[in-house]
Amino acid sequence: MSTSASAREPNPKNFVPDLHLLGIRDVIYKTAGIFQRDHKLHLLKVRCTLRMKELGIGLLRDYFQYLTKPSGQVETTILLNGILVGETRFFRSMPQLDALRKIVLPKLVAAKSTAAARTLKIWSAGCSTGEEAYTLAIILLEASSLLDDWTCSVLATDLNQNSVEHAKRGIYGESSTRNVPPPLRQKYFVKDATGLSVSPEIRALVSFQRLNLLDGRHLSMIAKTDVIFCRNVLIHFDMASKTRVIEHLHNSLSPAGVLFVGHAESLFGVSNNFSLLHMPAAIAYEKTKTSLAKRRLL
Ligand SMILES: C[S@@+](CC[C@H](N)C(=O)[O-])C[C@H]1O[C@@H](n2cnc3c(N)ncnc32)[C@H](O)[C@@H]1O
Question: What pLDDT digit, counting tens, does each position of 232-256 carry?
Answer without folding.
Answer: 999 999 999 999 999 999 999 999 9
